[in-house]
């Protein structure tokens, strides 16, 4: 076992003891890491719900190694034609995505099709939706986010996405749209709970605070993740989460999604209702196997 594998195993074990239930192996492109199947297997053995998002270029080669190890698998799509998709995604991955759908199903992996929409591509939704319906896969509408603050998507585009989300088999977390309609995170009354809800570990085995996109400090973990939570940098980041100057108008999906759970009311309600709709369609209507246990 190399040093990287030891670090990941240690971090997963300590995070699980601390109560973490969900782990997302993300990138860049996570399938580039040769030890990803080992990381996923260890996470599953510890009881984590595992998640991977991929552009699918390497999926055909690696699918057999991933079988039974990913609970939430997402295939990234930007349009229903190769030219537009490849331009938006920045790589020639369209054909790989289409090919990978059947490869995934053959390996008992049920992918969601993740359609990240912008001001330029919502019109290319229909073809991808037809494929998702044919294969009985969920299609996730995910609004692109601006790490610099203010939402750059026109409200009419969000309105169009909301209309599409009413179709069968389409998931859109409506809490994201509610937050953006209010102008995003407000530093005087912050929604963001990035530090309380999420542990962000970088490839160099350091903890990023307060979040990946706006890290003001990193702390080397040195095989002792638990000790990070007693350090003054972590306490300061937790106490000021959502209140830094760069937090104003923030709407970064991956941090806001778990933050909604800290806000009883509209944000929590719309987020929960959207996820219940997703689960009902995917696991009960489409009858996809529930690959993870519901954790307490």
Overview of this protein structure:
By secondary structure, the chain is an alpha/beta fold. The chain contains twelve helices and eight strands. The strands form two sheets. The chain has a six-stranded parallel beta sheet. Strands 7-8 form a two-stranded antiparallel sheet. A hairpin with a 7-residue loop joins strand 7 and strand 8. The longest helix is centred in the last third of the chain and has 20 residues. The protein is globular, with a radius of gyration of 19 Å. The mean pLDDT is about 95.
Order of helices and strands: HEHEHEHHEHEHEHHEEHHH
Strand content: 5-15%
The largest sheet has its strands arranged as: 1-2-3-4-5-6
General form: globular
Helix content: 40-55%
The tally of strands reads 8
Number of helices: 12
Distance between the termini: 32 Å
Would you tell me the overall average pLDDT? Answer: 95
Largest sheet: 6 strands, parallel
Rounded radius of gyration (Å): 19 Å
Q: Which structural class do the helices and strands define?
A: alpha/beta
pLDDT < 50 runs, ≥5 residues:
none
Ordered list of secondary-structure elements with their pairings:
Blueprint: H1 3-17, E1 22-25, H2 36-45, E2 49-54, H3 59-66, E3 72-77, H4 82-89, H5 94-106, E4 111-117, H6 126-135, E5 139-143, H7 155-164, E6 170-171, H8 174-181, H9 194-197, E7 206-209, E8 217-220, H10 232-239, H11 253-259, H12 266-285
Parallel strand pairs: 1-2, 2-3, 3-4, 4-5, 5-6
Antiparallel strand pairs: 7-8
Helix pairs in contact: 1-2, 8-12
């Amino acid at each position: 076992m190399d040093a990287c594998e030891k670090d990941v195993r240690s971090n997963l074990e300590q995070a699980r003891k601390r109560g973490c239930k969900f782990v997302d192996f993300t990138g860049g492109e996570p399938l580039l890491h040769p030890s990803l199947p080992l990381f996923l297997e260890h996470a599953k053995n510890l009881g984590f719900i595992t998640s991977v998002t991929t552009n699918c270029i390497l999926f055909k080669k690696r699918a057999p190694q991933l079988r039974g190890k990913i609970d939430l698998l997402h295939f990234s799509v930007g349009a229903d034609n190769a030219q537009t998709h490849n331009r938006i995604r920045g790589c020639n991955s369209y054909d790989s995505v289409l090919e990978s759908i059947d490869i995934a199903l053959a390996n008992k992996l049920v992918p969601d099709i993740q359609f990240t929409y912008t001001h330029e591509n919502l019109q290319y939704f229909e073809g991808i939706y037809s494929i998702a319906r044919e294969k009985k896969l969920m299609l996730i509408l995910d609004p692109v986010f601006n790490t610099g603050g203010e939402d750059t998507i026109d409200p009419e585009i969000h309105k169009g996405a909301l209309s599409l989300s009413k179709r069968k088999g389409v998931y859109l977390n409506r809490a994201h749209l509610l937050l953006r309609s209010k102008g995003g995170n407000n530093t005087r009354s912050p929604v963001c709970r990035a530090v309380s809800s999420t542990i962000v570990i970088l490839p160099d085995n350091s903890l990023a605070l307060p979040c990946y996109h706006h890290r003001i400090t990193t702390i080397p973990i040195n095989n002792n993740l638990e000790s990070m939570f007693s350090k003054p940098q972590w306490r300061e980041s937790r106490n000021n989460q959502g209140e830094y100057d760069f937090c104003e108008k923030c709407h970064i999906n991956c941090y806001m999604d778990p933050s909604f759970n800290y806000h009883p009311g509209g944000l929590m309600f719309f987020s929960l209702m959207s996820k219940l709709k997703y689960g009902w369609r995917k696991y009960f209507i489409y009858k996809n196997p529930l690959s993870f246990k519901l954790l307490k």
